[in-house]
Design a protein that fits this description.
Layout (H helix, E strand, L loop, with lengths): L2 E5 L3 E5 L13 E5 L1 H11 L3 E5 L1 E2 L3 H12 L8 E2 L5 E6 L8 E4 L6 H4 L7 H5 L4 E5 H4 L3 H16 L3 E5 L4 H4 L3 H13 L4 E3 L2 H7 L9 H16 L3 E9 L5 E9 L2 E4 L3 E3 L7 H15 L3 H16 L10 H15 L2
Parallel strand pairs: 1-4, 1-9, 2-7, 5-6, 9-10, 10-11, 11-12
Antiparallel strand pairs: 2-3, 7-8, 12-13, 13-14, 13-15
Helix pairs in contact: 1-11, 9-10, 11-12, 12-13
Length: about 325
């Protein structure tokens, strides 16, 4: 069974119960998450060996995080210890016209984001990894983390492994002139990428590909082939989202491979918890690629997994393949309208 590892930060999620705001509530519920956590846990649910490469503090909070990861089925053997704190964020659930809101603490001071390069033996790690997952959120942290990401990706490629990169651009993390700052780092990682998760906005705003004054789907069909050709990427995948007047969301997944686009059917559903849905989609795509499923099957599964994640509490969606396929079948019969 291929070993899949994600390099990224573990964060403590502090959620206001129900639909109250931070101002209203005096209670918080905590869990641990992060893009790498979500992806490796989801892949463990599909039967893969999902390991996390990160640094956690040697504190009771760090111990609680490791215990939580083990409960999710994540392999914690590649986790280093050091530093003093864990990154945190506060989540307020939106409702109706009021959007959800995420407020970060000083995550730049976390154990992961202050870890020195020598904290990781990149060559040894690469020898134990068949597939490496990287995220654009991690890329936004600081120059030290960016160098670690690039070095690990290069070592994995050199050792014969595959690199998956989810663009996941976050304007608030890059700051003023963020697209200009981010572009060279995205370009360096894309040169090493085998599977990229992205949409037409990533191609246009981060990478500077022209998409014209067309609708979003036409922009997607124009931009993605250009990105794939320029960087020599094997496969690109992503989602097209619509937010409807009744506050439901509609999602269509795509995969682009060897000059051909494949799309899932449009899935429409109510939203209970949106955080982590992109990671659920990415995980199902990785699973389908590893299992060598027909790509139409893979994109259908990925869209269904993302739909399920929207209806599940918490960042980390834990489904078996049969549960995802059942949700897709049930949706076809009962929910689409």
């Amino acid at each position: 069974m291929p070993r899949i590892a994600a390099f990224g930060e573990v964060m403590m999620r502090l959620q206001v119960p129900g639909h109250e705001t931070l101002v209203q509530s005096n209670r918080l519920e905590y869990s641990f998450s992060g893009s790498g956590v979500n992806v490796t846990a989801a892949l463990a649910g599909y039967g893969h060996n999902g390991a996390l490469i990160t640094t956690l503090p040697e504190t009771p909070v760090g111990e609680a995080a490791i215990a939580y990861l083990r409960k999710l089925g994540v392999d914690t053997s590649l986790i280093s210890r050091g530093g003093k704190q864990l990154g945190m964020y506060f989540l307020e659930n939106g409702f109706g016209a009021r959007p959800g809101r995420v407020t970060y603490t000083d995550r730049l001071g976390s154990s992961f984001n202050t870890a020195e390069a020598g904290n990781y033996d990149m060559v040894a790690l690469a020898s134990r990894i068949d597939v490496l997952h990287l995220c654009g959120i991690t890329l936004a942290m600081n120059e030290g983390v960016r160098k670690q990401m690039k070095r690990l990706a290069a070592e994995v490629k050199s050792a014969g492994g595959k690199v998956v990169f989810d663009c996941n651009y976050r304007p608030a993390l890059w700051g003023v002139d963020g697209y200009t700052k981010a572009r060279p780092h995205y370009e360096e990682l894309l040169e090493l990428t085998d599977l990229v998760l992205m949409n037409e906005k990533d191609a246009q705003y981060i990478l500077g590909f022209g998409t014209g004054e067309y609708d979003r789907m036409t922009q997607l069909k124009q931009a993605i082939p250009e990105v794939v050709e320029r960087f020599g990427i094997g496969t690109a995948a992503g989602t097209h989202r619509e937010i409807n007047a009744d506050h439901t969301h509609s999602l269509t997944g795509y995969i682009y491979h060897q000059g051909t686009f494949l799309f899932s059917r449009k899935l429409t559903f109510p939203v209970y918890d949106r955080i982590g849905a992109g990671d659920a989609f990415a995980s199902a795509v990785i699973h389908g690629e590893l299992q060598q499923y027909p790509q139409q099957q893979t994109v259908n599964m990925a869209a269904a997994a993302a739909m399920l994640a929207h209806t599940t509490q918490g960042d980390t969606a834990l489904f078996t393949e049969s549960e995802v396929l059942r949700a897709l079948s049930d949706h076809t019969l009962d929910v689409e309208r």
